Amino acid sequence: xxxxxxxxxxxxxxxxxxxxxxxxxxxxxxxxxxxxxxxxxxxxxxxxxxxxxxxxxxxxxxxxxxxxxxxxxxxxxxxxxxxxxxxxxxxxxxxxxxxxxxxxxxxxxxxxxxxxxx
Length: 118
Known about the structure:
The chain is an alpha+beta fold. Helix content is 23%, strand content 23%. It is built from 2 helices and 4 strands; from the N terminus they run H-E-E-H-E-E. It has a 4-stranded antiparallel β-sheet with strand order 2-1-3-4. Helix 1 packs across helix 2 (75-88). The longest helix is centred in the C-terminal third of the chain and has 14 residues, at 75-88. The radius of gyration is 15 Å and the shape is globular.
């Protein structure tokens, strides 16, 4: 059996906190972000952008960047809003969400920009 790798994470060290599956991977490059947005659009889900300070990333409340983009299918528009949020809040984590109207829940949720604690 292979050895398991321990991912060190603590409440006192905000840079070590993990808050979703993609947190254990390297930061997403532009191509991976585009593929995630394309997937959300292909499912017919409504994209939304959220952000929060790194120290509050484990909280259930994130700030919404504008309203969800109901019916938006232009990948470049969605990526542009995510980038605008990141530029407006460079120290915050920025999360992409795909809302599934049919299931009335989130179909996808991932941090696409990681903030730097101050």
